[in-house]
């Protein structure tokens, strides 16, 4: 884990102490990620003779960023991204364009609302990205880190997120 990621995560955690806010973020981040890739899944692109969607191409730079921050968390997010990209492809393949745009709008509204409710109602403070826009990209890393910790992995992250000493049980 890089010192940059450690500092960013430490700062991000200060905005996400309440468990209900964290739960709201899981849904909000998943919904917003799906909403971002859904319309892009409509456009096929051929790169070096390989057929992909604009969604897949658009996700690659942010996946590289997440891998650079922390390889294991990046790999977890890659697995999640594959599931969400596949879900988007299925939705696009089985709905009308109007249906897809309607679902995108609903996902955005619900995703943003869950973030706002999480921060205003449960956390009692503004979202982290208001103070630091780069935190927009830390949300998925935070959620994946919480999952790794819950599964008993990454005590180094538990020190930052939960304040536990490295030798303590997760």
TrEMBL record:
Organism superkingdom: Bacteria
UniProt record, GO biological process: sphingoid catabolic process
Entry annotated with the keyword Acetylation: no
Signal sequence residues: none
Keywords: Membrane, Transmembrane, Transmembrane helix
Transmembrane segments: 20-42, 48-68, 75-94, 100-122
GO cellular component, one term: membrane
Name this protein carries in UniProt: Membrane protein YGL010W
Lineage: Bacteria, Pseudomonadati, Pseudomonadota, Alphaproteobacteria, Hyphomicrobiales
């Amino acid at each position: 884990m890089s010192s940059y990621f450690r500092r960013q995560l430490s700062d991000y955690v200060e905005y996400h102490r309440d468990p209900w806010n964290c739960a709201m973020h899981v849904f909000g981040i998943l919904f917003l990620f799906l909403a971002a890739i859904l319309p892009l899944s409509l456009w096929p692109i051929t790169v070096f003779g390989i057929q992909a969607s604009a969604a897949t191409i658009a996700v690659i730079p942010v996946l590289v960023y997440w891998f650079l921050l922390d390889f294991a968390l990046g790999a977890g997010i890659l697995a999640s991204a594959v599931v969400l990209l596949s879900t988007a492809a299925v939705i696009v393949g089985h709905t009308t364009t109007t249906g897809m745009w309607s679902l995108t709008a609903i996902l955005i509204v619900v995703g943003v609302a869950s973030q706002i409710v999480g921060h205003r109602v449960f956390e009692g403070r503004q979202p982290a990205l208001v103070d630091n826009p780069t935190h927009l990209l830390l949300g998925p890393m935070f959620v994946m880190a919480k999952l790794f910790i819950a599964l008993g992995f990454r005590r180094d992250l538990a020190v930052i997120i939960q304040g536990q000493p490295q030798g303590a049980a997760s």
